[in-house]
Amino acid sequence: MKKISLLLIVSLFIFSACNNKTKEKKDESKTSSKKEILNKIKKTEKEVFDVPPEKINPSKANILAEYYIEYAAFGDSLAPEYLYKATGILMNTGNPRKAVKAINEILEKYPEFDKTENCYFLRAFVYDDKIKDTSRAGQYYRDYLKRYPDGDFAPDAKLLLKNMGKSTEEIFKELEKK
């Protein structure tokens, strides 16, 4: 019985030691993953942006957005900028809901980000122009105006709110009257 108990204790000790080494390797791989993702970002940015705008490959751009989002999970100082870049790509490549998700992450986790004002406006705009949810868009335009009444996008937000739900034809008719 003593031999079995001793064998069990030794086995647990060995298993515990191996388990700690596995954790250390996982931590190391996380660090190298960060470097790998940065390398993928740099490579893919060249592939996406070193071509004329009309030749940008949307699927490559979406891959780049995913790399930005993957990197942002590390939560360092580059995270909000990469989320912001992902937002621009996603809203222009047919992924507006993912764009809003990235914007919301910026607003929740990085309220001091230097482009926070842009994010508040962009969220409203994406709901308005891309998702076509005028109720939410209106809510977010009003939120933007409440936070930034004299902001860079305040005139745009007011105009978009005023014309929300109107067709282009209706807007042109109103402009002709003035």
What can you tell me about this protein's structure?
With 178 residues, this protein is mainly α. The protein has 2 domains: 30-112; 115-178, no CATH class. The protein is 79% helix and 0% strand. The chain is built from 8 helices and no strands. The radius of gyration is 25 Å and the shape is globular.
Concise description?
The protein is mostly helical and 178 residues long.
User: Could you tell me the number of beta strands?
Assistant: 0
Rough outline: globular
Query: What does the main sheet amount to?
Result: none
The portion of residues assigned to helices is over 70%
Structural class: mainly alpha
What integer is the average pLDDT?
A: 85
Key descriptive features of the protein:
178 residues, mainly alpha, 2 domains, 79% helix, disordered N terminus
SSE layout and pairing:
Blueprint (H helix, E strand, L loop, with lengths): L1 H48 L8 H15 L6 H14 L3 H14 L6 H16 L2 H14 L6 H10 L4 H10 L1
